[in-house]
Amino acid sequence: MRRGWRRRSVLLPAAVVLALVVAAGLVWFEPWKLVVDESVAEPAPAAAAPAGPAGSAPAGPVVLASGTLVPHEHATSGEAQLLELPDGSRVLRLEDLVTSNGPRLRVWLTDAPVLPGREGWHVFDDGRYLDLGPLKGNLGSANYPVPAGSDLAGLTSVSIWCERFSVSFGAATLAA
């Protein structure tokens, strides 16, 4: 009888510790995101008002810079465009994005060069970056407003950044 009691007194705490470790792992890694895609289909920004007289601001968005996304930690493809709208506001548009879903993915404008392959995984948090917010979906097209008054000088790339693991899923060099 005493022997069975000892075994239970060891097994119960071990089971509780194991359950806590598994729960913490699920919260930290969010493994379901590997099989759950989030699609987004936002239209491209359009002019807010009709065009004025000749010589006035353009009637639609102007592409300030653009680039093609390259893979880093995860297979990633699509296009990135930095747009200026007729009202002077700016938006980063990700078009036809295809990447893996993941925990705490963010969209960053950065001053880091886009390096191919594994060399480019960890460079984007080394310098200056502007966080445009959470990735709206890992599939599709979405717009990310650039905060008014943001200094974009020197921010020449965009990264799909995983805050949880400090790694780039994919990135693009933005060229005029």
Radius of gyration: 22 Å
CATH topology of the largest domain: Immunoglobulin-like
The CATH architecture assignment of the largest domain turns out to be: Sandwich
How many domains make up the coordinates? 2
% residues in beta strands: 35-45%
> Averaged pLDDT, please?
84
By DSSP (H or I, 4+ residues per run), the number of helices equals: 1
The CATH class label of the largest domain is Mainly Beta
Structure classification: alpha+beta
InterPro entries: DM13_domain
Protein name: DM13 domain-containing protein
Domain DM13: 60-175
Organism: Pseudonocardia yuanmonensis
Can you describe what's shown?
- With 176 residues, the chain is of the alpha+beta class.
- The chain folds into two domains: 2-34; 39-44 and 59-173, Sandwich (Immunoglobulin-like).
- The chain has one helix and ten strands, in the order αββββββββββ.
- It has one helix at 2-29; strands spanning 39-41, 62-68, 70-71, 77-84, 90-98, 105-110, 129-134, 139-146, 157-162, 167-173.
- It has a five-stranded mixed β-sheet, with no helix packed on it.
- The protein is elongated, with a radius of gyration of 22 Å.
- The mean pLDDT is 84.
Question: Descriptors for this entry?
Answer:
176 residues; alpha+beta; Immunoglobulin-like; 5-stranded mixed sheet; 5-stranded antiparallel sheet; 1 helix; 10 strands; 35% strand; DM13 domain-containing protein; DM13_domain
Give a brief description.
With 176 residues, this protein is an alpha+beta fold. Helix content is 16%, strand content 35%. The radius of gyration is 22 Å and the shape is elongated.
